Amino acid sequence: MYEQIKLSYATDALEPYIDKVTVETHHGKHHATYTTNFNDLAQKAGVADKSAEEVLANLDKISDETLRKGIRNQGGGYYNHNLYFEMFSPNAVKAPTGKLAAAIDKKFGSLDACKEELSKLAAAQFGSGWAFLSTDKAGNLTASNSLNQDNPLSEGKGLIPILALDVWEHAYYLKYKNLRPDYIKAFWEILDWGKVSARYDEVVK
Hints:
Helix content: 40-55%
Strand order of the largest sheet: 2-1-3
Shape: globular
CATH superfamily of the largest domain: Iron/manganese superoxide dismutase, C-terminal domain
Number of strands: 3
CATH architecture of the largest domain: 3-Layer(bab) Sandwich
Number of helices: 8
Number of domains: 2
Radius of gyration: 16 Å
Strand content: 5-15%
Structural class: mainly alpha
């Protein structure tokens, strides 16, 4: 069974950057629905014994087109939101450490340049979608954006996301209305780079 991530912080702990009502609605309703639907579809497709990463990276092995499309959307929503909510903290570490810090400097030149690139990708995503920082198993980083609930796993890029920036309107509209760039700027204030660094270390052995 795929489990929705439990928040490691109170629903009002991310204020003023993300408000309590948004967290309650986004995590408690939207993410909960993705989790329920993914579990149901995975059971029907006979893939519920596999990890979400494995399912999303092998969508072409699901022969039923309707189930494949549903799992891409609902499974992607489940996976993306688990990553998104996991990486926040009211006492966020403001910079990466260890191997991730070195990899960011190598790829982007600096942390500020990395954040700027991801912010541009998030702001430029037309309609609903995400921006991701991902790595391959060798530790090489890639910044990208994806439509709807797609991610580098479901897109077959051979990359594993370590940071997810949600730019669906339900992630920010209650507080920021149509000012997506303001929400993106606030996102960096509560993103815990210590958690991102730990995830990078898990992927890159």
